[in-house]
Amino acid sequence: MCGIVGAIAGRDVVPVLVEGLKRLEYRGYDSAGIAVLDDGQVRRVRRTGRVAEMEAAAQAEGIHAQLGIGHTRWATHGGVTEANAHPHVSFGELAVVHNGIIENHDAQRDRLKALGYTFESQTDTEVIAHLVHHHQQQGHDLLAAVQAAAKELHGAYAIAVVSKREPGRMVGARMGCPLLVGLGEGENFLASDVSAIVQATRRVIFLEEGDTVDLTREGVRVFDASGALVTRDEHLSDVSLASLELGPYRHFMQKEIHEQPRAIADTIEQVIANNGFVPQLFGANAEAVLGDIEGVQILACGTSYYAGLTARYWIEAIAGVPCSVEIASEYRYRTVVANPKHLVVTISQSGETLDTMEALKYAKSLGHDKTLSICNVPESAIPRASALVYYTRAGAEIGVASTKAFTTQLVALFTLTCTLAKLRGRLAQAQEAAYLDDLRQLPGSVQHALNLEPQVQVWSERFAPKQHALFLGRGVHYPIALEGALKLKEISYIHAEAYPAGELKHGPLALVDTEMPVVVIAPNDSLLEKVKSNIQEVRARGGEMFVFADLDSHFGESEQVHVIRTPRHVGVLSPIVHSIPVQLLAYHAALARGTDVDKPRNLAKSVTVE
Ligand code: G6P
């Protein structure tokens, strides 16, 4: 979603801001803008559409400066217009960029109007600009004005502010949305995401809730919510520039699909190094937290939720622990009967999805102190709010449609399952060794599935003209059908639904005709014969089926039944291997339809608003 970058330097920062905004494009946005202090004046350029259009406009206007802020906006309050794009200014003196939502913006707007401020946009952000300006008018310097304004703002925000009254300074504030400082030599930076500044510096400070920060070229001072000067640890970011570059691929999604063998190998590295499923994989005090749990409650959104649904099958079957999985945005507003002996597991690629964060906070308020975050972004908000953490090591995921984050989440969840099983005395040594071996083989099996790409591509051409598609799976492969349908609709805009195959005749069968492609995930597991019967039900109604079956499934092909054979059955890890062909199908169908694969319309990578 929205992204922030700011820079103060002895050189022209406009290229730094533009480069930073380009690196934030992956988050999803619909307009972009920068504001700089040039010769004592605030100069601003904003455009709807791509950062490149805004960049061209900035070039045409000859904008150069040593201090500036930039933003990519994903519309929430007010439509996609230039007037609503950030930065927002007050009296041409002060400019603000903002991520998040100001909940009391209506009340503040009325108050500020009464004080004589006029509004040019429909955004909640403009309220911040005027509020800070108002506090400056009361005699505060920029830092004190931002701190005073922050006290009056309710909601979630990360902001960066510059003012022509203090041209050697940039101020930031964070509450509920990520904001970090980049430390350079004689130059400093602000960003909502490390990828925006990694080209300039790897030394970063993650701000905490309620922090404000004062940046000059020479130094950075951080203040906590009470206004006290504090020291925050400096980290060296290991985000690799290579993971932010496209390399030989056409799209980040394609690149990330192909990175899965490596991402999985990296994620299981610690398990293999330990030669077993030890609680310490989840944190130093994990044994105490995981030892006596009575159940698992998984909370997540989107693709991460489907990872959770898959894990439920493993956790109940292998560890013998009751497990529920719930969409975070539902859980957080529900009256929940909490059992503090249940482990709350949040799954989030970004670690900053607002609903997942709020669901975690709600769970903690109900007495859940056994919390585990499965996350791909070190030091992001959700792992920092959790007692335990398992970092997937997928590397930066840029494509909006999650791929390598999903399969590495599954690996992490399988590791959790085996660890819980072992702690409960349900994992015999021989079985543990067998599962470890399965994990070791997994990158190879995933690579084998990737090699099916040319066959999947042929299928995708038949999908491209369709309006609808149905995905079927059973048992642990049902969530993979859900994920396949989600991928297809996200990036190709073909309407797709997934059903447990046994549910077919309770409704979706009515949709089946010669125009409805039916994708079936049918590995050789205990439910294979049931799936085969379900397939007959589709066949009898003239439906055309596209079956992903492993080599052991023994499916016959016919005019109506097309089969792609995935690798030999890989046992419990089969859902991970079967994720690959459905990702490829969505990718190639989208390519054939000519959609913007990495930046599908209306969607964002990190959903930091409700
Ligand atoms: C958005 C993204 C999805 C992602 C979901 C949850 O909808 O487009 O790809 O699965 O958010 O994000 P998270 O970062 O919490 O896993």
The molecules bound to the chains, other than polymers, are: 6-O-phosphono-alpha-D-glucopyranose
Strand content: 15-25%
Q: Tell me the structural class.
A: alpha/beta
Total tally of structural domains: 3
Helical element count?
Answer: 18
Helix fraction by DSSP (H/I, runs of at least 4): 25-40%
Find the CATH topology of the largest domain.
Answer: Glutamine Phosphoribosylpyrophosphate, subunit 1, domain 1
- Which CATH class of the largest domain? Alpha Beta
Mean pLDDT across all amino acids: 93
Described by the principal axes of the CA atoms, the overall outline is: globular
The CATH H-level homologous superfamily of the largest domain: Aminohydrolase, N-terminal nucleophile (Ntn) domain
Under the CATH scheme, the architecture of the largest domain is 4-Layer Sandwich
Largest sheet: 8 strands, antiparallel
What is the tally of beta strands? 25
User: What is the gyration radius calculated from CA atoms?
Assistant: 25 Å
Give unreliable regions as ranges. none
How far do the termini sit from each other? 12 Å
Biggest sheet, strands in spatial order? 3-2-4-1-10-9-11-15
Function: Catalyzes the first step in hexosamine metabolism, converting fructose-6P into glucosamine-6P using glutamine as a nitrogen source.
GO cellular component, one term: cytosol
Main location: cytoplasm
Domain SIS: 286-426, 459-600
